[in-house]
Amino acid sequence: MNGPDRYESDLDIDIASLFVSLWRAKGKILIGSLVATGLAYGLTLAVTPKYNSAARIFIDRTESVFTRPGQDKVDDAPILDQEAIKSQVELIGANEVLSKVARANKLAENPEFDPAERISYVKLALILTGLVNDPASMQEEERTLATMRKNLKVYSVENSRVIVVEFSSADKLLAAKIPNEIAAEYLAAQRRAKGQSNSDATEWLEPEIAALRTKVREAEEKVAQYRSQSDLLIGQNNSVLATQQLAELSTELSRVRANRANAEAKASSVRAALDGGASIDTLPEVISSNLIQRLRERQVQLKSEIADLSTTLLDGHPRIKALRSQLANLQRQIASEAANILDSLEGETKTAALREKELVKNLNGLKVESGRANDEGVELKALEAEAESQRQLLESYLSRYREAKSRNDRGYEPTDARIISPSQVPGEPYFPKKIPIVSAAFAGSLLLLSLITMLRELFSGRALKPAAGTRFFPESELAPQVSMAAAPQESAAETESAPEKRAEASLMSFSPEEQPAPPPAPESDPEHSIKAITDRLIEKGASRAIIVSPEGDEASASAVLIVRELADRGLRSILLDLTSTGSASHPMIDGFALPGITNLLASQAQFRDIIHSDPYSGAHVIPNGTAEPSQAMRAVERLPIILNALTTAYDTVIVECGPADPRGIARLVTPGSEIIMSVINPDDASIVKSAAALQDAGYEDILLVTPVGSMPTAPEPDRSALRRA
């Protein structure tokens, strides 16, 4: 298991030193900036100034609605899309336009537009080496056009129909003149193209019109000849006469059939009334008869007289009998008149039936005639449609021919573009801009020289300082500064001649700010040395070693030395720092405040975050951590589980407990654990007291170890800070 690499850099940049170095070199930096500014100003004076001017062309219809052809009178139709406008941009820069402008202004005679006459020494050298083509090998017009294109810039304004023609030249008058002439020549080229198009149209339309006239005449002759041969008479509404008569006869037949049906219905009603003896007074046909109406009036009169006389005379009176005889005679006359009406209706029915029969006969004959006329009419319509289409095409060609002919005769060729902003003579050159160039040269040179000065300071190491929380020992200061060392203070000469002690000092430095005064150390005891205790742990196969340091932080150096010795022996070893000050892990993490066991107990980190590599050996270390101790103590029951997991992953787990009592290490001890007491001064009262407490608690097999006189076997770290002298 490898911990993450936490050493990005052991040095910090001293910002104050950088600014001090800049202040010391301020004179050189300022002089260099002024020299660069002077060179830039001289360069602006030596460079030939360039002037720039632009003309703007608007793509729009210049033709009036009164002169526009009839088929083109849609005002809201788009003139040109974006692709077409880009095509117009290419037409403006075409050789045809540029060549005429160049010849009109004699640009070939201008040295500015002839590269062959102004070849620099550098370009001449490139030509001689074959890296650049020789302008003299090109034709004069080709060289002029190439220079024009280099100075010309034609583009369309985004989301508009405006085309900009820019031109730059050392001559301000020429810079303003060329864009206007290019725009004018572009419009003239459009007019010539449209004039040529009209001329081509008239030349093509003349023979076409002559041929169409012949075709129209022949088509109309075919229509007239076929109509006369087929005897197709045209009636009203431009329809064939037979078809029209058939329609009229069908209408008459329907009317006759309706009348016959009406007469039959009337006769049937009258006959039914007479045969059944019913009253005929309600029949419309009887009531409408004038004779019956008069008889009915006389009948009513007689009935009135009989009623009047019956009041004074008896029924047998001759006067009443005479009146009754007249009344019966009137009734017979009414019945006779009703019979006559019935005969009239039946006669009308027979007449209608005969008329219907005659109409049906005539209708059948007209059907045959109409069918023949329709068949011939289809052919006639086809001939007429052909003649009509030829006539319409002829009229269209004649209209276009007259329009094109009139435009050619009058020389009226409107274009789809106009100049909206001609180029003006520029007042100032666009290149070089003296103030921006000089200002940029001064600022750039000032910044560049400052960067060079700072980089020189950084690479020389004068602007570097040790990182926070880390102490480095140059060779002149590699003296023993171990807080638990008991040996007397050595002289500077002895310190410089003791590389082993210098390494030991670098491994055991705990605090860069304060170091406690080292107490006098006892004589080195080989039986209790780091090497001896490491051998004992390996022989016993101990998977866990609990180290108690009653003397405090100074004695915790034994844990660091043991775990490194185990790593050097090829065992996977890790140190767990459970001291309150975190002093045991400081030498292995160079004093950095890194996540550790308290962070894991407080659920603020995972295993991979708290396990760190020892830069001086192959061992790993879990520091005290940065979490609140009170928060970590709430989950202290998880500590045995964590130790079991570490025991599974590592061969040996070294737990530094500091000046802990037996009760404090009880939860850490397992059957395979070894109890080790780190001792610097055996006569210390805390040593005696702690040993007695451990024996009373049942820990009899306690190993004693002392860091005094033990030399670390781990190699010195290969770091930049140690390489610096």
Description:
It is a single chain. The protein is of the alpha/beta class. The radius of gyration is 64 Å and the shape is elongated. Helix content is 55%, strand content 9%. The two termini are 35 Å apart. The protein is built from 24 helices and 13 strands. Helix 7 packs across helix 11 and helix 8 packs antiparallel against helix 11.
Detail the topology: elements first, then pairings:
Blueprint: E1 11-13, H1 15-24, H2 26-46, E2 51-59, H3 82-92, H4 95-104, H5 121-129, H6 140-151, E3 152-156, E4 162-169, H7 172-229, H8 241-276, H9 284-287, H10 290-309, H11 318-410, E5 417-421, H12 434-460, E6 464-466, H13 492-496, H14 499-507, H15 530-540, E7 544-548, H16 557-568, E8 573-577, H17 586-589, H18 597-601, H19 607-610, E9 612-613, E10 620-622, H20 629-633, H21 639-649, E11 652-656, H22 662-665, E12 673-678, H23 685-696, E13 702-705, H24 720-723
What's the helical proportion of residues?
Answer: 40-55%
Adjacency order of strands in the biggest sheet: 9-10-8-11-7-12-13
Shape: elongated
Largest sheet: 7 strands, mixed
Radius of gyration computed on alpha carbons: 64 Å
Given the structure, what is the number of helices?
24
Number of E-state strands? 13
Low-confidence stretches: 1-10, 73-77, 469-523, 711-725
Distance between the termini: 35 Å
* Average pLDDT: 76
Structural class: alpha/beta
Strand residue percentage: 5-15%
